[in-house]
Amino acid sequence: MKADQYVIGVDYGSDSVRSVLVNATNGEEIASSVFNYPRWQQGLFCDPNSNLFRQHPLDYIEGLETTIKNCLKNAGINPAAIKAISVDTTGSTPVAVNNQGTPLALLPGFEENPHAMFVLWKDHTAIKEAAEINEHAKYYESNYLKYVGGIYSSEWFWAKLLRTLRTDEQVRAACYSWVEHCDWIPFMLTGGTDVHKMKRSRCAAGHKALWSEEFNGLPPNDFFSSLDPLLDGYTSRMFKDTYTSEIVAGNLSQEWADRLGLNISTVIGVGAFDAHMGAVGGQIEPYHLSKVMGTSTCDILVTPTQDMDGKLIRGICGQVNGSVIPGMVGLEAGQSAFGDTYAWFKNLIAWPVKNLLQSSSLIDQATAKALEEEILDQIIPELSRQAALLPKAQDDELAIDWFNGRRTPDANQALKGALSNLNLGTDAPRAFRALAEATCFGAKNIVDRFISEGIPVKGIIGIGGVAKKSPFVMQMMADVLNMPIRIHQHTHTCALGAAMFAATASGIYPTVADAMASMGGGFDASYYPNEESASYYAARFPKYKSLGSYIEKNTKHE
C-alpha cells in the first residue's frame, strides 16, 4: 500500500458535521474540522414542545463543503492522494424528494417548509402513525416486524413518511420518494439525478424501513396501501436492493470535485448510520456492546451469522445481516436521551443566570455573553465533581430517563421522564446524580434484554462525547453494569469508522476487518466496577424498574 493514500470520513451528528482526513496506512488523523449547523443553532424549523425536530439540507451541504475544504487546507496534501470519502449520518432521518432525488426544501416554494426538510431521528411527531403500523401488522400472516424487535418506532422511516403525507398537502403532492440522509449525501456527491438509481444503505433499510432478505425487499405495497391509501405505490418508488457500506456508490461528480478541490477519481462509498460506522471505528468485536454515547445512545452488537439462526431479539431496533460488518449480523439498541438529559438539566438550572446576564445593565453584552459561556461550560463538570462526593443511601433521589421517550427495550416514544424521592434537601448535585444513574440504569435494561434473549454481552466499548468527557458517568456505568468499559482513543470515532469504510470501498483494504486492524488505534482508558458501588446500584435497580413500570401503566401517553 502506498504511503500517500488518504481517505476522508464524514460524520453527521445531531448538532454538527465533522470530517476527518486520515492516513489509510495507519489510521493517523491528519486533519479534522467541525461545522455547527447554523439554522439548527438558531432553533429554526423545530418545536421541542411538540417533539418536532427538522433540519434543512443546506445545513448539511454547507457543512460538508466547509469541513472537507478545511481538512484539505490544514493537511496541505495533494488532492490526488484522497482516494475515497464515506459518510455516516443520524437515523432514521429521512426527507421527501422529487424523482430526481432532490430534497423538496431545495426547490422553489419549499425553502421554509419544515415538512419538506429532513425529519431528524429524535422527531417524535409520528407516534400515532407508529402505533397504527404496530396494530396493522398484527393482521398479516407474515410478521413484517420480526427483524425490528416486534415494535415499530415513531423515530423510523415509514411512520415519518405517513405523518408527513398526512400533515402537508403541498409536500404530499410534490413527494415522489422518501430518502434517508445517509443515502442522499453519497447520491448528491456522485451527481445522481434519478432516485431509482440511488444505492440504498443496508443498514438504514434493514433497521428502520422493514427491508429484509427474507421478504425479498420491502413488505408488499398492499401492507402499506391498506394501512393508508396515501402510501399506495411508494414501495415501487423506493428500493428492492440494498448495499453494505464497503460497496462503491460511485465516483465524485465533476461539480463536487470542483467545489471541494478534489478529483473525479475519488470513490464515494455507500452510507450508513453513525453508530454503525462508529462501532467499526471503535474496533467492535463479536459480543462486545459498542455504546455511542452522545445526545442519545446507540448500542451496537455484532454476532457471527450462524449464531443468529432462528433467533429473533424482542424489543430492539433490529437485527440485520451486514448492517455493521459485512458477513455478520448487526443488532441495534439505544436510549432516546442520554447526553440530552444532562443538557436539559444544565439548561434548567442555568436559566436564571442566562436571563439575568442578558438583561443586565451593569455589564456590556459582549462581556455578558463571554461570562455566560464560561459559566455554562463549567456546570456539568462541577455537578459531576460534587455528585461523586455525595454519600450513597438506598432512599436517594431516583429518576427515570425517558425524557425523549424510550427507544429500547420495547420502544415507546410517548413515555416521559421523572424525578422522584425529592425533598427540601435535594440540591442540584443530588438531582444530577439521579439523572446520571437513570441513564446508566437505562443502559442496564438494554444489556439485560440482550442476555435474556440469549445474546451474551462480554464487554462494553464506549465511544462518543460523553464517553470521552465524563469519567463520573463512565465509572457509574461500569458500576451499574458490573462490567468493565473500554474507551476508544479516537475523538471522532464515527468519522474514523466512515474513513475505514472509505478505505475498504476504494480497495486500499480487502475487508472492513483489515481496515479496522490497521487504522483502529486501540483504547486509551478503561473503567472497572467498584464492588461496593456495584452492590449499591444492584439494590437500586429494582426500584428504577418498579418506578418505570408504575409510570408506564398509570400515565396517559398518546
Structural features, described:
The protein has helices spanning 38-41, 57-75, 127-137, 157-167, 169-174, 181-189, 202-208, 221-225, 254-260, 274-281, 339-359, 365-389, 428-452, 465-469, 471-481, 493-505, 512-519, 531-554, and strands at 6-12, 16-23, 29-36, 46-47, 52-55, 82-89, 94-97, 118-119, 177-180, 248-251, 267-269, 272-273, 288-293, 297-304, 319-321, 328-335, 398-400, 418-420, 459-463, 485-488, 523-527. With 558 residues, it is of the alpha+beta class. The chain folds into 2 domains: 6-281, 2-Layer Sandwich (Nucleotidyltransferase, domain 5); 339-489 and 524-553, Nucleotidyltransferase, domain 5. Strands 1, 2, 3, 6, 10, 11 and 12 form a 7-stranded mixed β-sheet that branches. It is globular. The termini are far apart.
End-to-end separation: 57 Å
Contiguous runs where pLDDT drops below 50 for at least 5 residues: none
Q: Biggest β-sheet: count, sense, barrel?
A: 7 strands, mixed
Indicate the overall shape.
Answer: globular
Indicate how many domains the architecture comprises.
Answer: 2
**Approximate strand percentage:** 15-25%
Using only C-alpha atoms, the radius of gyration works out to 23 Å
CATH class of the largest domain: Alpha Beta
CATH architecture of the largest domain: 2-Layer Sandwich
Count of helical segments?
A: 18
Q: What do the pLDDT scores average to?
A: 95
User: Which structural class matches the secondary elements?
Assistant: alpha+beta
CATH superfamily of the largest domain: ATPase, nucleotide binding domain
